[in-house]
Amino acid sequence: MTRRAAVRGVGHYLPARIVPNAEFEATLETSDEWIRSRSGIERRHFAAEGEATSSMAAEAARAALADAGLQPGDIDAIIVATSTPDLTFPSVATMVQDRLGMTTGFAYDVQAVCAGFVFALANANGMILSGQAERVLVIGAETFSRILDWNDRGTCVLFGDGAGALVLEATTGNGLPSDRGILSVDLHSDGRYRDILYVDGGVATTGTAGVLKMQGKEVFRQAVEKLAETAHAALAKAGLEAQDVDWIVPHQANLRIIKATAQRMGLPMDKVVVTVQDHGNTSAASIPLALSVGKAKGQIKRGDLVVTEAIGGGLAWGSVVIRW
Ligand SMILES: CC(C)(COP(=O)(O)OP(=O)(O)OC[C@H]1O[C@@H](n2cnc3c(N)ncnc32)[C@H](O)[C@@H]1OP(=O)(O)O)[C@@H](O)C(=O)NCCC(=O)NCCS
């Protein structure tokens, strides 16, 4: 008997305001055609005034709990992946705990930027496998619209806001790749790449939140190289191959990166869940959003082999293999 962390529920939240590419044409030298052809993005959601990462995270959590048929009191731990917390502290996770009316269990944030959800999943898996928790709510939630430079056409057109959540639950399997649940994890980071993707402000330096800075071409190059590699490594750790994969659920940053990664893995695009056209890059929220949308559309079904892979500032990157 092998202890596993299996998915019991999934849900998401997107703010009501949808901004099509054309809206940027009024203020920037850009076009719908440029944004679409270079990134695959057609529209994104932006949070309303008064809306923040914790409120979106709590909505996604409620949806995941409803999907799981569970109450907040059934959860032992909440882990939120975010780089755009409401406040420097307390954590978004404790704010979600409060919003859900939970007075038991424990809650904390993890920060690995666009790879955050993969790191949070790995963390939740560890909590469950070590017996510290039976059920963990794992959330990715971001309000990137609050750290964008609206005069920088090379970045502000690429990002969006939103939240997604999974309920992971302890189960037992046979220790085989056919088990339900998280089958393997592969994580990496390399701080030498700090300057190609960062925010130019922070508590201990400028005392401001700062805005996102990116060397797009270099990030693109690193992403294409590292994502297929980590997905392959995670599959190998699970004793599986690319041919076994039902769905790749990649971080949704750029359709060209998503296509190049699928090609390097030797997998056709009809095995890839793609939401970047509707959400833009929602950083740590992008994978749980895509998992939730993929399930709702009838793409991801119980028993399917799902590979998530992501890369973000740090650089930090990784992959998690899940039997849904
Ligand atoms: C940002 C990105 C879409 C740019 O695409 P690209 O094909 O690399 O384009 P380039 O950077 O070569 O820019 C080409 C030109 O378009 C211009 N440009 C940039 N943004 C533009 C926009 N929104 N509209 C019109 N032109 C734009 C650039 O200024 C550049 O002009 P120049 O040649 O006169 O200097 C692409 O590099 C990318 O997606 N990178 C990865 C980003 C990412 O995924 N980050 C998050 C990872 S978590």
Automatic annotation (TrEMBL):
Cellular component annotations (GO), alphabetically ordered: cytoplasm
GO molecular function, one term: 3-oxoacyl-[acyl-carrier-protein] synthase activity
Gene3D superfamilies in UniProt: 3.40.47.10
Record keywords, A-Z: Acyltransferase, Cytoplasm, Fatty acid biosynthesis, Fatty acid metabolism, Lipid biosynthesis, Lipid metabolism, Multifunctional enzyme, Transferase
Main location: cytoplasm
Keyword Plastid (UniProt): no
Keyword check for Nucleotide-binding: no
GO biological-process terms attached to the record: fatty acid biosynthetic process; secondary metabolite biosynthetic process
SUPFAM superfamilies: Thiolase-like
Active site, per annotation: 114, 251, 281
Catalytic reaction list: malonyl-[ACP] + acetyl-CoA + H(+) = 3-oxobutanoyl-[ACP] + CO2 + CoA
Pathway(s) annotated for this protein in UniProt: Lipid metabolism; fatty acid biosynthesis
Region (ACP-binding): 252-256
Known EC number: 2.3.1.180
Top-level class of the enzyme under EC nomenclature: transferase
Role according to the record: Catalyzes the condensation reaction of fatty acid synthesis by the addition to an acyl acceptor of two carbons from malonyl-ACP. Catalyzes the first condensation reaction which initiates fatty acid synthesis and may therefore play a role in governing the total rate of fatty acid production. Possesses both acetoacetyl-ACP synthase and acetyl transacylase activities. Its substrate specificity determines the biosynthesis of branched-chain and/or straight-chain of fatty acids.
HAMAP family: FabH (MF_01815)
Subunit structure: Homodimer.
Domain remark text: The last Arg residue of the ACP-binding site is essential for the weak association between ACP/AcpP and FabH.
Family: Belongs to the thiolase-like superfamily. FabH family.
PANTHER family: 3-OXOACYL-[ACYL-CARRIER-PROTEIN] SYNTHASE 3, BETA-KETOACYL-[ACYL-CARRIER-PROTEIN] SYNTHASE III
Annotated protein name in UniProt: Beta-ketoacyl-[acyl-carrier-protein] synthase III
